[in-house]
Amino acid sequence: MLEVRAERLRRDILALAGTGAGVTELHERAIELVDRTARSDLTCWALIDPQTLTFGSMTSGRNRIPGEYEPLLAESECGGHDPATFAEVARSGRTVVRASDLPATDVAHSLRHGAVWHPLGLDRELRVAFTVDGYCWGAAGFVRSGSDFSDRDLEFLTMVAPALAAATRAAAVHTLRQRPGNDPGPAVVLTDPSGEPVALTAAARYWQDRLAGPVRLAVLLRAATFGARSSPSGVFRARISDGRGFWVLVRATALVTDGDESRTVVTVEPAPADEFTDLLFAAYALTARERDVCTDVLAGLSTAEIARRRHISSNTVQDHLKSVYAKTGAGSRAELAARLAGRQP
């Protein structure tokens, strides 16, 4: 019976992805279907940047997490201390993680559990990573009160996770658009140690309005501030979807003033073309050598020029291109270049 339910969900979700549905629409439908088998009081699904493993958009179930708790969840995800963050689950190679299976001390010191779930009367949590072809494209968190998530819940979500991953990847690629119209100019926000904005440029207000849906700017600023602080490099970097198919590049680092690094500079801008192409390389699951060849094709190099540059034979270049054509559905170099620029014929 469980396998029948899982197969029905896989079929429905992949069919919806095939219609060109966006990530939000796809996740809203998936939330409805999953809840019929694995019940939760609150759930939040994320589009994940497959390379930085930061959340790119958020979709809630019928009961939305109260807005005042959203920045705390962002801090939990990016602060570098909480257990079983979406990024940690993805990096671990696990599909499903139940909070009750984690060390009790980790959960007891968790910001997410102590400052968000406990005040809301929720004491059970389950997290799922949606990974396909080695890349994580999405994740979901489920919380509820009362009885814990059962082994049956874990089994069901493990069954459907690969299809949810493939569907999320398809939805992200189907709706990709390179730039959201005119560039509004330099968008810079200065945040305090808690991630609250203390100063911002006029262009930042543009993004404040544009990101009011899937990822509110307040949540993004909290994530960027704590992400920069916890990063070994001191730099936070994420690509965010605005829910309309456009991708935005967000970066953050400490502002150093006379030795004071308590404030953080956050910049927001349309994702450059190379970032866009990089996402498509991941979406099409291209190998490192196939990416090199595609980069050279986009630069206008001939087969012979690619062979000399990469120190391989012309036949090997052609073999890589045949593999790329099969993965992308392109039939020629011109069509491949169009697809990798987001202009699917």
From TrEMBL:
One Pfam family linked to the record: GerE
Domain HTH luxR-type, first and last residues per copy: 279-344
Keyword set, alphabetical order: DNA-binding, Transcription, Transcription regulation
UniProt-listed InterPro entries: GAF (IPR003018), Sig_transdc_resp-reg_C-effctor (IPR016032), Tscrpt_reg_LuxR_C (IPR000792), WH-like_DNA-bd_sf (IPR036388)
Protein name: Helix-turn-helix transcriptional regulator
Organism of origin: Rhodococcus zopfii
